Amino acid sequence: MNKTHKILAVASAIAFATGLSSQAHADVGVADIVGDQATTQDIVSYGLGPRGQRYSPLSIINKDNIKNLFPVWSFSFGGEKQRGQESQPLIKDGVMYVTGSYSRMWAIDIASGEELWQYDARLPEGILPCCDVVNRGAAILGDKVFFGTLDAKIVALDKDTGKVVWRKTIADFEAGYSYTAAPLIVPTDAHGPLILTGNSGGEFGVVGEVQARNPETGDLVWTRPVIEGHMGTLNGEETTMTGETNESWPGDMWKNGGGAPWLGGTYDPESKLAYFGTGNPAPWNSYLRPGDNKWTSSRVAINPENGEIEWGFQTTPHDGWDYDGVNEFVTFDMEKDGKTIQAGATADRNGFFYILDRNNGDFISATPFVKNITWAKGIDENGRPIWDPENRPGDPAESADGKKGKSIFAVPSFLGGKNWMPMAYSQDSKLFYIPSNEWGMDIWNEPVTYKKGAAYLGAGFTIKPIFDDYIGSLKAVDPTSGEIKWEYKNKAPLWGGVLTTGGGLVFTGTPEGFLKAFDEETGEELWKFQTGTGIVSSPITWEQDGEQYITIVTGWGGAVPLWGGEVAKFVSYLNQGGSVWTFKIPEQLASK
Amino acid sequence: MKLDARIFIAGLLVLASTVHYGLVQARPIDEVTDSGYITIFVYQDYAPYSFEDESGELKGIDVDIAKHFAESLGVELRFLVRGADENVDDDLRVNLWKGDLIHRKVADVMMHVPYDRELDTRNEFIVLMSPYFLEEMAVVTDTAVLPKLETFGRFMNKPIAVEVDTAGDFFLSNAFRGALHQSIRRGRTFDEVIDLYKNGDVPAAMGSKAQTQWIANQSPDVESKIFQPPMPGIVRKSWPVGIGIKHDSRDLGYALTDVAFGLIQSGEMEAIAQKYGVSFTAPEY
User: Fold this and answer.
1) How do residues A13-59 score in pLDDT, each as one tens digit?
2) How confident is the model at residue A411 (pLDDT cuts 50, 70, 90)?
3) pLDDT-derived band of residue A425, with 50, 70 and 90 as boundaries?
4) Cβ contact (<8 Å) for A452 and B49?
5) Are B146 and B154 in contact (CB under 8 A)?
6) Which residues of A does the annotation mark as catalytic?
7) Residue of B nearest to A254 (CA)
């Protein structure tokens, strides 16, 4: 609590010293982004600070008065385009910048809830996004807001008018690329601020890459492919190769190795490194690509000055389960055995919660955060999985005699112990709050499938809940021990991000449509509000004119409803929508 | 029923807005003839079945058959051209019954769908009809380097090109427990495969028989020959392809089956294939 007040005091002192008021429309500087967590009157980064802790020191709303939290306004995205809304809004000078499905963006006046402008990307025919038409949020710097569109482009808009300033191609959508993540803005000495993006695309043939651009012009500064054998660039010149050709890939398979860092990245102001998670390798059949297949299903730490990979840590070497390791790497200081460790945490699709040294990637610990994991018996002292060979999907070639191959049951399912939805870390409770799911999958070799009109060996799979009554599970995890302090069980799979606050609260939304608040220490549910459609986005909180606001974007969708099987029973009745809900404690109740 | 209703509602909304992609539903024959047009799906960049020539005109065996289909119904022909998804089941969903996530557009007929009972059974919203062409796997070789090809063992020390993530790629990657890994040159597109072969970078390329014949035709400077050596472990060495139709549009499928059968009987189908330098094998009924 003391710490919270101190941060608030510092923040308001800065505000006074620079003569800012909430009405002034100042440009966003890169220092504002780096220091975003401490300045509670704005949110100028994805994750409430580039470390991605999703922790706000604000305590105006707390355990005692949360019962008085009511909606101020609701804003509809309109149109017939009601699909999954996974966006985290940004807040600056009384204006909310929020992205929506189908690559749309709005600026909303927070005081009135009225629209200031709307931008609709004109999407070409021929884009086939694999997993819904979501967008996860924007970035802001200077007088511009930036976001990526489904046709794999990045757009810079004038933040006051919504007019396009520049528009650049991240990758060719016709080759299977897309873009859905929030871009990341980082400071550098060599180039000034840079805007960093990964890429998306599940098809065989894509190669994961992180790109850095000049936010003023959109011009490329450096590129860093995450698959070994590919060359990076800096200022248009080739620099270094990622890894060494054929170190962990056979033949020419590295050329199409996959590994798309589709969830974007985080940045630590102390280590000065940008952290990106990378997707699963291609092709799906692991028997075709003996080796670790680096850097797929990994975290890579990139030096933003030159685009070099400082270190990589592979959570699922030689992935055979589609454990798409894009999960965010959240940096924090860990007090353990009387020492302060400069750490980072990541809750992987593969069901394990990893703590690494954020400076060099050294493995510290890994503990399961979902139940009944079968694909590995554990993680060894070097951070490598102890595979269970019985639970690797079989070699499809073995079923070439036309019979259905052997079936295995792998936990977690390919949608992961945790999927894209970001976790949160409280600087008060020192716990991580992980939105997870308890499910597994049957995988078998399909005797004959077809691809582009030709006979092919494929695999069939179906996702199954592990328990009869719930899939979703919000867990409070102690990073020093891996111990699960409390668990909230939710019938439908959780697919939205988490927020923690100095008020001792943990917020998350459910597919059933509730925004909920929990006691950070006990997990007791203290408050909920029904928004009318499923929630699969990340809540935010900020302060405006002495009041604390909470906002959540609503709209059921994302990858879950695209998969049938037994999970459909848990979600098929959920209705679509597309709105922004904003809450505060009404003036009449604020004194209590 | 519920699903149909949802698609129909989506259709109305699309019409109500300014988007003019036409009806989003695959339709029975009366609706097709009444509307005056038919939408037929063909794969993008899929020579010699469906591809754009240098002038941007859509050409190929499937394209020509589709022209006969439209002509027989006396309606205008519209094409829906898209790339392949992860498997044909996905393609059937996206192109025939559910539509894509963004524009919700579907076709009345999908060309080049493998005629396979299993595939038909597991896709309840579509029916497979009218097998019109027999696909076979084959290898084209540069006879200056490989005058004969008795076995794939030849590729232990000679490179072979194949389009990435295709049936041929899968077979080669698996062959002899991965022993050919170092010899496989994967083209990101079929055109890259043609270039590798045409430029003499590889003495062989694998694909469907029609594709290998097409590669040979595109490489006039190479003395080419087509081989079909034993393919241990291959899923299917040959299979028929036909059309896909939405399950409530069977009458359209029956009408087009008659057209396709007529083309085969009259020798027109063979003439279409020969136009692209491809030999025609009729599927067995």
Assistant:
1) 444 444 444 445 689 999 999 999 999 999 999 999 999 999 999 99
2) very high
3) very high
4) no
5) yes
6) 322
7) B186
For residues A567, A573, A574 and A577, what is the CA-based torsion angle, rounded to 10 degrees? 140
A347 beta partners:
A353
Residues in chain A closer than 8 A to B165 (CB atoms): 203-205, 256, 282-283, 451
Find where tokens 């079909």 sit: B228
Name A237's Cβ contacts closer than 8 Å, sequence gap at least 6. none
Whether A592 shows a pLDDT value over 60: the answer reads no
Query: In the structure, what pLDDT confidence band is assigned to residue B24 with cuts at 50, 70 and 90?
Result: low
Structure tokens at A547: 């009041």
Any chain A CB within 8 A of the CB of B178? yes
* CB-count burial class (<10 Å; 0-12, 13-18, 19+) for B2: exposed
The CATH number of the structural domain formed by B136-227 is: 3.40.190.10
In chain B, which residues fall in CATH 3.40.190.10? Answer: 2-134+240-275, 136-227
Q: What percent of chain A has pLDDT over 90?
A: 78
Of residues A133, A252, A290, nearest to B178 (C-beta): A290
- Inter-chain contact A288–B170, Cβ cutoff 8 Å? yes
Neighbours of A436 (CB within 10 A): 28
Q: Are A432 and A476 in contact (CB under 8 A)?
A: yes
Low-confidence winner among A358-362, B171-175, B274-278 (lowest mean pLDDT):
B171-175
Tokens 């939105």 belong to A435
Of B91, B102, B112, the CB nearest to A127: B102
Q: Per residue, what are the HEC states of A20-48?
A: CCCCCCCCECHHHHHCCCCCCCCECCCCC
Would you say B83 and A174 are in contact if contact means Cβ atoms under 8 Å apart?
Answer: yes
Please write the tens of the pLDDT for every residue from B82-108: 988 888 999 999 999 988 888 888 999
Cis peptide before A295 (omega within 30 of 0): yes
Judged by CB atoms closer than 8 Å, whether chains meet at B114 and A453 is answered as yes
**For chain A, how big is the Rg over CA atoms in Å?**
23
Report the distance separating Cα A329 and Cα A339, nearest Å.
21
Check CB contact under 8 Å for A288 and B174: yes
CA distance A553 to A544: 19
Do residues A513 and A535 make contact, with C-beta atoms less than 8 angstroms apart? yes
DSSP state of A139: E
β-pair partners for A258: A207, A281
Mutate to test the interface with A, among B14, B79, B92, B165 (most CBs of A within 10 A): B165
Q: What is the pLDDT of residue A79?
A: 79
Q: Which amino acid is at B81?
A: V
The Cα–Cα gap between B87 and A427 comes to 47
Instruction: List domains and CATH numbers for chain A.
Output: 2-71+81-572+582-590 (2.140.10.10)
CB A52 within 8 A of CB A43: no
Q: B266, exposed or middle or buried, with CB in 10 Å at 0-12, 13-18, 19+? A: exposed
CATH code for the structural domain at B2-134+240-275: 3.40.190.10
Q: How far apart are CA A400 and CA A402, in angstroms?
A: 5
Are B101 and A253 inside 8 Å of each other by CB?
Answer: no
The reported pLDDT for the residue numbered A171 is 93
- HSE-up of A234 (CA within 13 Å, CB side)? 11
| Kind of pairing between the strands at A407-410 and A424-425 | unpaired
Residue A205: list chain B partners with CB under 8 A. 164-165, 188
